[in-house]
Amino acid sequence: MIEVKDLHVRYGAVHAVRGMSFSVAEGELVTLLGANGAGKSSSILCVAGAIKAAGGRVYLDGEDVTSASPEAMLRKGMATVPETRDVFPDLTVDENLTLGAYVRRRDRNGVSEDRSRMFEMFPRLHERREQAAGTLSGGEQQMLVIARALMSRPRILLLDEPSLGLAPAIVDQIFEMIAGLKAQKLTILLVEQNARKALQVADRAYVLRLGKVAGSGTATEIGSSTDLDALYLGG
Predict the structure, then answer these.
(1) Nearest residue to 162 via CA among 180, 183, 177, 182
(2) DSSP per-residue string spanning 99-149
């Protein structure tokens, strides 16, 4: 569904992504692994349309979407969960979920059904449905932004560092939820620093270093590699 060819991303003089290529098939969970500065988040944001490529192409279902906006990508079925956990802090949990279904706002019955489904998937959000999102804990906010993204009924979910800064018990819950979405055959592109957790749920992995692909393979192959640290650190 996603094909990235020779991608380059620049921030002024900083060349963050240097000719990166990777793909994600329908129903697959692919993870991009790497240390800070490896180009993981820049790559996923470029795929989502949030930042523009300095070179290379991004394809969705064979269509060139390199210059598409985030809204256009959302309408094409791609939802993104950024690492910044951008909830609408003054709105309630329920109102945040409603905004997640903006592209489907005329489907009132479907939106109502999906809200109920999100509350079943995330019982803690149901408990706090009338609470302002800005008062939630970090883990609860992560649950909310994932649930809000799912309210658009995406065909593809992009997850950027979902475990960042969370307590181990919450990280376990988040990855159990990701495994559940994978079981439902949702296509997922996951950016994650916690390699071991990511490899437990992924089908395939790309290890990034200094803006390039340093290694790739099935999750089993990458997870059993004795030189995983070397791939990360360039040893």
Answers:
(1) 177
(2) HHTGGGTT-HHHHHHHHHHHHHH-HHHHHTTTSBGGGS-HHHHHHHHHHHH
CA distance 6 to 18: 8
Query: Residue 91 burial (CB < 10 Å; 0-12/13-18/19+)?
Result: middle
Q: Which residues share a beta bridge with 9?
A: 17
Q: List CB contacts of 203: < 8 A, sequence separation 6 or more.
A: 28, 29, 30, 218, 219
Q: How many Cβ atoms sit within 10 Å of the Cβ of residue 67?
A: 11
**Residue 92 in 3-state DSSP?**
strand
Question: Residue 36's CB: how many other CB atoms inside 10 A?
Answer: 7
Q: What is the pLDDT along the chain (235 residues), one digit of tens a residue?
A: 999 999 999 999 999 999 999 999 999 999 999 888 899 999 999 999 999 999 999 999 999 999 999 999 999 999 999 887 789 999 999 999 999 998 877 788 888 999 999 999 999 999 999 999 999 999 999 999 999 999 999 999 999 999 988 999 999 999 999 999 999 999 999 999 888 899 999 999 999 999 999 999 999 999 887 566 666 655 4
| Alpha carbons within 13 A on the beta-carbon side of 211 | 13
